[in-house]
Amino acid sequence: MSSRSGLSSWRTLALRKNFPILPSIDYSRVRRRIIRLGMDLSSLKALRGSREPVVLDSTGVKAHRAGSWLERKYGKRRNVKIHVAVNAKTGEVIDMGVSRDDVRDSEMAEGMVDRVVNVVEVSRVIGDGAYDSIKLYRHLEAMGIEPIIRPRKNARTDRGPPSRRSAARMIRDYGYDIWRRIVGYGRRWMAETAISIFKSIFGEEILSKKPRWISVEAVQKAFIYNLLLNTA
What ranges do the domains of the chain cover? Predict the structure, then answer.
């Protein structure tokens, strides 16, 4: 029996029994319903909280077939950037942000850290050179969090936030490799691994087109990633 004839028989039986005939479900309808679940950042509560460093990183993703509104809102840029905060011990994504691909990582970091401290105890924040911002250093120091951020090569050792001066001085005197081992900067690999797994599971495209739904889709994917991580 073909699928079409089987469907016709089912509809005939449904009419006879007064069963409700539901509309056919397609991928687009299912996806729209999933997106409208309304999941937000509060869904990314750490499943295994601990006082561990938080690693910050970001990655670019393609906005699938989203040319019109991206051109109106962001100019000619077609991509968006996903920012993640990862627990350095568990590998869980505990916060996430979405921005244009020309927004600096350090600009997104402050808000992410402010949200993260409400979820887990944060001892240190680890980030690459993209987070080397005096404003971010001072923000972290004011919160009692130790910044483990790689300073730029021309970073001053006689002015600026104390932790930045210390890092720049140590790299100058002992070299990058020694500094990296002493301060634990190598734990950045947790965020790099999380992003790599995230992209291998969900791909490098965001299917949503509007900014609001892009953020919801990204958070939903991160929530699923955390669940998979904790059931592995």
Answer: 3-34, 44-231
44-231: CATH topology is Nucleotidyltransferase; domain 5 (3.30.420)
The torsion angle over the Cα atoms of residues 183, 166, 119 and 87, rounded to 10 degrees, is -30
Q: Dihedral, CA atoms, 204, 225, 92, 139, nearest 10 degrees? A: 50
**pLDDT tens track of the chain, all 232 residues?**
444 554 566 566 666 666 666 666 665 676 666 666 655 666 566 555 556 789 999 988 877 654 555 555 555 555 788 999 998 888 889 898 888 888 899 999 999 999 888 878 888 999 999 999 999 999 999 999 999 999 988 888 888 899 999 999 999 999 999 999 999 998 999 899 989 988 888 888 877 777 777 888 888 888 888 888 877 6
Q: Give the 3-state secondary structure of the chain.
A: CCHHHHHHHHHHHHHHHCCCCCCCCCHHHHHHHHHCCCCCHHHHCCCCCCCEEEEEEEEEEEECCCHHHHHHHHCCCCEEEEEEEEECCCCCEEEEEEEECCCCHHHHHHHHHHHHCCCCCEEEEEECHHHCCHHHHHHHHHCCCEEEECCCCCCCCCCCCHHHHHHHHHHHHHCHHHHHHHHCHHHHHHHHHHHHHHHHHHCCEECCCCHHHHHHHHHHHHHHHHHHHHHC
